[in-house]
Amino acid sequence: RNSSQETFNLRGLVLCIFNSILPGVLILFLVFFAFLHCWLNAFAEMLRFADRMFYKDWWNSTSYANYYRTWNVVVHDWLYYYAYRDFLWFFGKKFRAAAMLSVFSVSAAVHEYVLSICFGFFYP
Fold first, then answer.
1. Burial class, 99, CB count within 10 angstroms (exposed 0-12 / middle 13-18 / buried 19+)
2. Is the model's pLDDT at 22 over the cut of 90?
3. Which of 49, 61, 89, 121 could make a disulfide contact with 66, Cβ separation 3.0–4.6 Å?
4. pTM of the model
């Protein structure tokens, strides 16, 4: 169906969004399980890596801050030790919010860069 020739209506947009929610959440959970549970545990087993804490109980999070700390512990630990502490030293202890915003911005920029390389185009 050629949707570029149709006129815009709110009902069609809402139906399109609701039809995409369930497959999107299902794909999110499957990718999470496949990568953070299966793939990383397989490599940890092959390399005899003892620390298997790749994620914590992110499904019990009550805030976005707690969710971002628990859903990918590997990335969170790396960002904390190599980015946040340096930004905190640079900005000073009084400006913790600026350090957090800087780490979030750097993380977002790196994720956008990786996605643009994977998809072959950049769409801001």
1. buried
2. yes
3. 61
4. 0.67
